[in-house]
Here is the input.
Amino acid sequence: TPTVGLLFPRASETREVNSLDGIWQLVRSNSSDPLQGIYERWYSRNLQSTGYKIIKVPVPASYNDVTVDEELRDHVGTVWYERHFFVPSRWNTNGTRTWLRFGSIHYGCFVWINGQRALNHSFGHLPFEVEIGGLVKYGKENRITIMVDNRLNNSSIPQGEVIKQSDDTGHVLIQTYTFDFFNYAGIHRSVQLYTTPQNYIRDIELKTQVNKQMGRIDYKLWIGNEHEQDFKSTILVQLLDRDHNVVAHQLNRNYLNGTLLIPNVKPWWPYLMHPEPGYMYTLQLNLLAESGLLLDSYQLPVGIRSLSWDKDGIYINNQPVYFRGFGKHEDSDIRGKGLDNALLTRDFSLLQWVGANAYRTSHYPYSEESMQFADEHGIMIIDECASVNTDLFGLPLLQNHMSYLEQLIHRDRNHASVVAWSIANEPRTQKPIAKKYFDELANYTRSIAQGRPITAASNVAEPSMCMMSEFLDIIGFNRYNSWYHNPGRTDMIIRPIVDEAVSWRNLYEKPVILFEYGADTLEGYHTLPTFIWSEEYQKTMLSKHFQAFDKLRKLKWFIGEFVWNFADFKTEQTYTRVGGNKKGVFTRNRQPKDSAHLLRQRYHMLAFIL
Ligand code: GCB
Here is the structure.
């Protein structure tokens, strides 16, 4: 069933937002008995009374690295979060609904309020919410209890496997996975209580276009009013520019669809493609009673642009786009994958400094806050779902994969910055069984794609072996010449990259992007002549790729270069990773390696000439 609702919580004349972020209590349950807390009904009393050790932890944050406890870092199974909170008594009116909303929890969770089940959700990196008016005590203290399960299996997105191994004292459970980033877990994004009126604006879907000077917004609204069948909605839709002038408006009686035309529109442009990139209007929606009384009000930021694509490229406002980008991660010291506004600000500042105009949300959806930053900074997003290294293509997996894409597209469809959906990273598409899987998946995604092309990152040894790419609109590939292929050989980059891009093109006749290339680099390690892992090596590797890209750029179907990675990030413990994956152009602490300066010259040069 398609998702409806989940608008990002915003306070307004008719809505209040209270944050439940802060310090929560956490209990780590026994790995060998992850459901103990369910049998013993831990949700029906304070966690304190379970006798287990209570740890105070921050929300939002991954729980893994906030203490020095190795068992917590490497925990497999469930942890329990709890806190107390007040609900204002002024919310206790017939006209007010109380909602509880999560930005994301990794991976599966059950939520109870005052011991009563409120909801459950699985999939990390996506929001979910529930109306809790019937569960809370107004003007009194309430308790929220959440069980979070980090286990991944054959049909989770992404996949993983929990195995039992002997250790020095008995047996342990180990979460295995093949993807190359740490399986951080916990309450990763904000937890919010918010109100809406009884009759409220439940959802919005926008399509924007720009034609010469004329902007156009087609909108569709959903009103939440199931308690009053004969409710007649009147909606005043106003578009405000940055200076709060109303530049278009419409009064809609009983219609939930409409169109705004904006003469002399200021289109949304990518960074450095226009003197004023990321121009955002505000769509002001007012739901009115028949008497004209204001019932509900919601403000949605909106960038107005057209997006199209053909076999040679992607076009924003009819201009061809060349992507200067990165693969990124939501990752930082101590916080793990927890939302951190300071980090967001720093990352966007660095993206601008380096002259990038895009990134791929490798390998899962990033926070809604980051999507808003991307809109405002003119950073184009290749929006990836959490399918990474997908293997064993079963039906339950396909169903979850579809549902994941549906929830992702629903969440992000109104962002001007989103220019493509990436349905997978490096699935095992050399397997014949992958063909039917991706045929179905791509067909489904196309049916809900909201005017965006579909892409994915393939790493099969040879384009003709890929059982997925024929179903895509944009061909993406990942290739590590001079790293996984011919390590140490920076003289074996230009030709293989050019040849491979050409063969992808010849096979599929679609635009082609290199989504990953890179080399692990230890900051401060210098060698002459260049040697693998040194700062010099990363620079040489980059500049050889630049030479290849300059040849390819002349063929107009080659439309982008994405360095792997923006910054160093944590991985699981293996002998190939020294303190994590070090392919960042920036350190994990967001300071430049030498290569960042080189990349900066190139990205600014490209912005200037293209
Ligand atoms: C890849 C993966 C990415 C890894 C990267 C690497 O192909 O898509 O998740 O981190 O290679 O550095 O090995």
Summary: The chain is about 20% helix and 30% strand. The longest strand covers residues 200-211. The chain has three domains: 17-150+185-196, 199-305, 318-609.
